[in-house]
Write a sequence for this structure.
């Protein structure tokens, strides 16, 4: 698929094309280039506020959308309507399309960033996970070109190209997360990491097997994995965008539970059916570093993905077991279904001790409690960085929306262990679970600058987002944008 920016005068009516023609209610409907198509203008005038209509004229498809009043328009609505238009384009199986968007740009929009999000969101909307489906006789639908009517079309080509890189990286993340646990094993994540190393720039890969993990006394990773026949792995990718320096700017740590049954504290049916996506934090890290290396962001970044399967068996972790983590701190296991934080603790401690990053960012489908708190539309953000405004802004600019929850010192007493240093479950089992999970990680982070993204709420798509069912690739775009804005974030530490 090619995506091109065009001026209005470069667009003309052509047969067998799809035309996305949005407009605001209460304003005179005008589509430059289609002045002789009075039937289109007439049909558009009949579309009610907030509604859309497909109109067929002269062997072309016109998708007419009444966006409502301009005063209520914003960037989020712009992107959702863009994705929905791509879905309609897919349904009609057109190979060429024109999106007339220059007159619906939200006020005070950051045009360079919005241009990047154009190509990004087109690719996100067109995505569908078909790896296990039989190919139809007519083949999978392909779009040859989408032309976008946009101001200063030549000025923002770099942003458009970067959006394509990001969109493809997010879809790579979605492919990994959508893959069933039978195939996406800990070793399967290793193979994905090898692909990232081979396709990216300036990326090295190291994998710790079970023997190495035992030598390093990574009791958290080893403990969670002991119920599965599949052996654990710790995946370490390093990207050096500042070749003259070995100093690490960012550490990305992604939860890689390739299937989570809950262990001996086994999950009920409704809670288990999506648990092949419990490695979505790990896949987000892989997608992000791939895009960062292709955009060539001038930072040094280390990525760590502890990859394990959490299964019940005669050798599985038990309630009451005590694990000695890589840091030397001991963990009292109160629930075998609060396992993600245990493996992340080892990876975070390893990152701090051996690489001393300026900021640590972990991404994990950590708690159902974050979903209860925020619903399906925002990732829970926890941090010990006082200025959260910049971190919220990164979410807005990337499209991975976040909202902060507290990490107050008062909560820390709720995770104190009785027979070990720390417990993997909060004292109040049904209250504040997202916070206690974050505070557990903070205990291992200590005083190092840290951001925790609990992506459980946004892991999978919901209705009216303009996305296919399954993984959203949540967290990938946030990490990329955070890397792009690193200097600005670092100033606020």
């Amino acid at each position: 698929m090619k995506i091109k920016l065009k001026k209005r005068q470069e667009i003309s009516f052509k047969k067998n094309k799809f035309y996305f023609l949005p407009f605001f209610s209460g304003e005179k409907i005008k589509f430059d280039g289609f002045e002789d198509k009075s039937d289109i203008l007439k049909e558009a005038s009949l579309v009610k506020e907030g509604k859309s209509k497909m109109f067929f004229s002269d062997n072309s498809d016109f998708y007419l959308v009444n966006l409502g009043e301009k005063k209520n328009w914003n960037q989020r609505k712009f992107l959702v309507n863009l994705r929905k238009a791509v879905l309609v384009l897919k349904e009609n199986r057109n190979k060429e399309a024109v999106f007339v968007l220059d007159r619906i740009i939200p006020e005070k929009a950051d045009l360079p960033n919005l241009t990047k999000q154009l190509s990004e969101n087109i690719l996100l909307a067109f995505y569908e996970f078909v790896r296990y489906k039989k190919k139809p006789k007519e083949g999978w639908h392909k779009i040859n070109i989408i032309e976008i009517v946009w101001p200063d079309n030549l000025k923002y080509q770099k942003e458009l190209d970067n959006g394509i890189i990001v969109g493809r990286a997010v879809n790579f993340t979605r492919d990994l997360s959508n893959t069933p646990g039978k195939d996406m094993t800990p070793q399967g994540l290793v193979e994905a990491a090898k692909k990232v190393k081979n396709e990216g720039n300036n990326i090295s890969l190291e994998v710790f097997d079970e023997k190495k993990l035992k030598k390093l006394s990574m009791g958290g990773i080893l403990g969670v994995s002991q119920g599965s026949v599949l052996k654990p792995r710790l995946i370490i990718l390093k990207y050096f965008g500042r070749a003259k320096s070995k100093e690490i700017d960012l550490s990305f740590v992604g939860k890689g539970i390739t299937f989570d049954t809950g262990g001996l504290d086994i999950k009920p049916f409704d809670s288990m059916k999506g648990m092949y996506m419990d490695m979505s934090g790990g896949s987000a890290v892989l997608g992000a570093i791939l895009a960062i290396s292709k955009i060539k962001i001038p930072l040094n970044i280390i990525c760590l993905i502890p990859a394990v399967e959490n299964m019940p068996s005669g050798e599985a972790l038990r309630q009451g077991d005590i694990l000695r983590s890589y840091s030397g701190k001991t963990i009292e296991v109160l629930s075998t279904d609060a396992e993600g934080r245990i493996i992340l603790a080892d990876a975070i401690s390893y990152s701090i001790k051996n690489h001393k990053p300026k900021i640590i960012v972990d991404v994990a489908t950590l708690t159902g409690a974050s979903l209860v708190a925020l619903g399906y539309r925002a990732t829970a953000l926890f941090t010990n960085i006082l200025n959260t405004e910049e971190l919220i802004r990164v979410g807005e600019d990337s499209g991975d929306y976040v909202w902060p929850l507290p990490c107050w010192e008062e909560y820390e007493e709720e995770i104190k262990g009785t027979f070990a240093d720390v417990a993997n479950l909060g004292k109040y089992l049904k209250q504040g679970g997202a916070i206690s999970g974050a505070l557990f990680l903070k205990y291992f982070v200590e005083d190092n600058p840290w951001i925790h993204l609990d992506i459980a709420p946004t892991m999978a798509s919901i209705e009216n987002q303009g996305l296919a069912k399954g993984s959203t690739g949540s967290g990938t775009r946030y990490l990329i944008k955070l890397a792009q804005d690193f200097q600005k974030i670092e100033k606020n530490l």
In short: The first strand starts at residue 2 and ends at 6.
